[in-house]
Amino acid sequence: MRIERSFDVVVIGTGISGLATAYHLQRLGIQRLAIAGPNLEASATSRSAGLISGGQVDNFTRIAQAHTAERATALWRFGDAAFDALVAYLQRGGVKHLKNRRLRLLTSPSEQREAALAVAQMTANGLSAQLIATKSTDPDGLLESLQSRILGVQSDGGRGGWVDPKALLNKLQSDTATLPRLNVVQAIDDAGGAPLLRLMDGSTISCEIVVAAAHLQIRSLLPDLAPALVSFADQWLHLSLKHLPKDALGTAFSANNTHEWGVFSSPNRLRLGGARYLRPMAGIEATTPSVEPKVTAQLLATLGEMFSFAEGAKILTSHASLDINPCDELPLIGPSFGSSRILVATGFMGTGLTTGFWAGKCLADLVAYGKAPDLPRFLWPERLRTLSSS
Ligand SMILES: Cc1cc2nc3c(=O)[nH]c(=O)nc-3n(C[C@H](O)[C@H](O)[C@H](O)COP(=O)(O)OP(=O)(O)OC[C@H]3O[C@@H](n4cnc5c(N)ncnc54)[C@H](O)[C@@H]3O)c2cc1C
Q1: What is the phi-psi region of residue 283: left when phi exceeds 0, alpha when psi lies from -120 to 50, beta otherwise?
Q2: Which of 372, 10, 370, 387 is nearest to 190 (CA)?
Q3: CA distances (Å), 116 to each of 3, 103, 171, 207, in order?
Q4: Is 32 helix (H, G, I), strand (E, B) or coil?
């Protein structure tokens, strides 16, 4: 086999996690670095709605119940740090974005009870959350517009917002423009030494370390991880509204146990997604994305039941895409089990724009310093290592 070129690090993927890893590696002075992948349009990142938030999508209680309150707290802080780091990058680079707050709109008495527990647990663990009144003193405020479906509101503080995903990718692309670009990777050959990458154009590349940030394709590049990574379909609508309360701009929200989510992305625009709880369109293990008319109708119906200003909302565009979740619903970031030369970043549980950016910084730290203090160890793929012996 003829090896055409060799690098210290090759990052596979030109979405948020791949480009952010390359950006941070470059900042840390890593030489002989290359990025492999197709153009930006091919990424889930470019098709996302642009909602950014701190913490996690699921409420704190859900994560604490599944993984202990200690881990939920660490994961929350990880998400908050990811949000702060991304916003700082956007501000420095002049990338268009909005920052406001993160609200959970509670639609049932059981969700209200859970929110009260979540707020108590979060506060006890030093995190920011509170239950707030559904009526404000501002007659043109977002809270004043809430309809009877919303029984209560949990505010997770000021870490909510929106970024134009394509502008974010373009900025990362331009910040890494001097790095060599390689073709799509067909396979990673890892026989214990330096990994070899077989590219679609027939060439073979060797590298000391490879970062697999290839989203759904991680399953074919690293088959040991495939059983743990579940694909699913999601969709969102870009809506125009006749009127928006002035304090709504940049507010990120979820409702109905996060089954619906959205962000007010400009003075008369809302990006609204979710509602994939409708069977049989839940999208679990989907192989192709599709905009489901029944889901669209459900989203519009729930919108009208949430906000008084939603009447007359018009669909500008509809978007569908696939995402990927680890089976234990924790992001997968760190060295792959079986080979410490292969690093992985995927499974961001709905906060891919913030978590993907921060995963890139943490993986760059691992490469440069051999440790990543900001990355909780329980996110490393090693937690799934029994898969390789099955
Ligand atoms: C409908 C929908 C809406 C969403 N909205 C939001 C949102 O508003 N906010 C949010 O935070 N998250 C959102 N998400 C989640 C978010 O999009 C993802 O978590 C995130 O984009 C994943 O980033 P990534 O870099 O891991 O993957 P990607 O962005 O998909 O990047 C992977 C890259 O790898 C490349 N690649 C694949 N195979 C190979 C190969 N063999 N060789 C080389 N390159 C390869 C791909 O071409 C691509 O460039 C949404 C998800 C869906 C489905």
Answers
A1: left
A2: 10
A3: 59, 14, 40, 50
A4: coil
388 C-alpha to ligand 1 centroid (Å): 25
What element of type H or E holds 98?
strand 97-99
* Best probe residue, ligand 1, of 39, 40, 45 (max atoms within 8 Å of C-beta): 45
78 has pLDDT over 50? yes
- Alpha-carbon span 268 to 353, nearest angstrom: 23
pLDDT digits (tens, 9 = 90+) for 292-337: 999 999 999 999 999 999 999 999 999 999 999 999 999 999 999 8
Which tokens is 321 given? Answer: 């895409």
Distances (CA, A) of 357 to 124, 141, 221, 336, 341: 28, 32, 21, 19, 21
**Within 10 Å of residue 319's Cβ, how many Cβ atoms?**
16
Report the 10 Å Cβ neighbour count for 247: 17
What is the chain's alpha carbon radius of gyration, rounded to the nearest angstrom? 21
- Taking the C-alpha atoms of residue 112 and residue 108, their distance in angstroms, rounded to an integer, is 6
Q: Which residues of 324-353 are buried (b: 16+ CB within 10 A; e: fewer)?
A: bbbeebbbbbbbbbbbebbbbbbbbbbbbb
Query: What is the distance between the alpha carbons of residues 219 and 228, in angstroms, rounded to a whole number?
Result: 9
82, two tokens: 């990811």
pLDDT in tens, 134-168: 877 777 899 999 999 999 999 999 999 999 999 99
C-alpha–C-alpha distance, residues 189 and 341, integer Å: 12
3-state secondary structure (DSSP) of residue 58: coil
Whose C-alpha lies nearest to ligand 1, atom 6?
A: 48
For residue 344, give the amino acid letter: V
DSSP assignment, residue 307? B
Contact 240, 314 (CB under 8 A): yes
* Ligand 1 centroid, distance to 132 Cα (angstroms): 34
pTM: predicted TM-score of the whole model, two decimal places: 0.96
